[in-house]
Amino acid sequence: MRIKGKTPRSYQLTRISALSALSVVGSFIHLPGPVQSVAFDSAPGFFAALMFGPFDGAAVCGFGHVATSIVNDFPLGILHIPIALGLALAGAAMGSFNRRFGLLPAVGIGVFINTVLIVVAIPALGWQGTLSFLPFLALAACLNALVASGAYRSLKDRIPV
Q1: What is the pLDDT along the chain (161 residues), one digit of tens a residue?
Q2: Which residues contact 150 (CB under 8 A, 6 or more apart)?
Q3: Distance between CA 3 and CA 41 in Å, rounded?
Q4: How far is CA 151 from CA 27, 126, 155, 156, 158, in A?
Q5: HEC string of 34-55?
Q6: What is the CB neighbour count within 10 angstroms for residue 45?
Q7: Largest separation between any pair of C-alpha atoms in the chain
Q8: Could you tell me the fold of the domain covering 9-155?
Q9: d(Cα 149, Cα 87) in Å, to the nearest integer?
Q10: Which residues contact 83 (CB under 8 A, 6 or more apart)?
Q11: Domain assignments of the chain as residue spans, ordered by start
């Protein structure tokens, strides 16, 4: 329900909570790779960014990564904090790009930021480990974006924003 063009805070909080819960569910669906925290946790955040905008996308992407880190016992330790902040940036960028430039550039920037965050893992994995992890992370980012953009295209005319 909208009041004078504004979304009520309770509705926004509810959808962020629900999509964050889906991120937790996605964190249990692991993709193959050397680090166990590669999962479908970003898809709900990417969807939130595309459907509801930068704030919702940032919140759900950030919370989603924290959930995945918890589920997997923090394999990269304290480095999960900057990764979660980076994923929040990816969600915000996706939401902004989708509003300004459309779906394809938004998905591209989200996948790019998600993949570039690999540099944060260099202290934990080293250069060789980081470079060997890169293709797995890029594939995971693409699959998360594919799921999110498919859901967005299916639901964009059915869900009130």
Answers
A1: 445 567 889 999 999 999 999 999 998 898 887 777 788 999 999 999 999 999 999 999 999 888 888 888 887 888 889 999 999 999 999 999 999 999 999 999 999 999 999 999 899 889 998 998 899 999 999 999 999 999 999 999 998 77
A2: none
A3: 32
A4: 18, 36, 6, 8, 11
A5: CCCCCECCHHHHHHHHHHHCHH
A6: 35
A7: 54
A8: Arp2/3 complex 21 kDa subunit ARPC3 (1.10.1760)
A9: 17
A10: 65, 69, 76, 117, 120, 121
A11: 9-155
Q: Whole-angstrom Cα distance, residue 144 to residue 27?
A: 11
Tokens of 109: 């920037």
Amino acid at 54: P
Coil vs helix vs strand at 75: coil
- 3-state class of 73 per DSSP? coil
CA pair distance 156, 161, nearest whole angstrom: 9
